[in-house]
Amino acid sequence: MNLTLRIWRQTGPEDKGRMVTYPVQDVSPDMSFLEMLDVLNERLILDGEEPVAFDHDCREGICGMCSLMINGEAHGPQRGTTACQLHMRQFSDGDTIDIEPWRARAFPVVKDLVVNRNAFDQIIAAGGYVTAPTGSAPEAHSVPVPKADADAAFESAACIGCGACVAACPNGSGMLFTAAKITQLSLLPQGQPERYTRVIGMVDAHDEAGFGGCTNIGECAAACPKGIPLNTIGRLNRDYLKATAKRSGTPGS
């Protein structure tokens, strides 16, 4: 295939940035999207030009590094797929493809398609862990967990922290990520002692990092490559209401 790429180029955080057009020839439909960008960068380097900066690591849909807006969609047109696992067979010969970084106040652009996602680390540092010593691994099934809770916790733990939810949200909210990291602990016995201090700390860190508020539009769940459902935010909201009631000393909380 022969394609036309319109790629966001930005030399640094202070640069205004611009879209630059690059033709790419002889693209195999079996290439991944990032392999196609590799081919472009090889050509740019041979031509003495600056290659396009973009994040990547495992290229197996696990690490969450491949943060790209492709034709206005986080990770591209194929649902439940990261950009590194998106193949060029999803496009047609002669297509023009727009490639941009995540667009969110909490994710400032570092260079080209690379953004700073340290704001997610701040949310995790505010409570996304268990501080109590857990000792050695317990015997299997020695701590009973209802299957529905175990399944929901596992589902939330699948979040790879890529930031697609933030990029897709019109408000730039990171609430789906925050809810997933809270839910995977709040549904299990190990997470109970800090359940309510955790939710307050992590939501506060979310707001302080500059993320927008959640208005339940649902674009986050639609863009999530791991299928984290929207009702995960509902669980967060319930825990947050209980936590604020406990903190204020509301009777019956």
Automatic annotation (TrEMBL):
Pfam annotation, one family: Fer4_7
SUPFAM superfamilies assigned to the protein according to its UniProt record, in alphabetical order: 2Fe-2S ferredoxin-like, alpha-helical ferredoxin
A molecular-function term among this protein's GO annotations: metal ion binding
Signal peptide positions (record): none
GO biological process: aerobic respiration; respiratory electron transport chain
Annotated 2Fe-2S ferredoxin-type domain residues: 18-103
Top-rank lineage group of the source organism: Bacteria
4Fe-4S ferredoxin-type domain span: 150-179
Keyword terms of this UniProt record: Iron, Iron-sulfur, Metal-binding
Cofactor: [3Fe-4S] cluster; [2Fe-2S] cluster
Family: Belongs to the succinate dehydrogenase/fumarate reductase iron-sulfur protein family.
Protein name: Succinate dehydrogenase/fumarate reductase iron-sulfur subunit
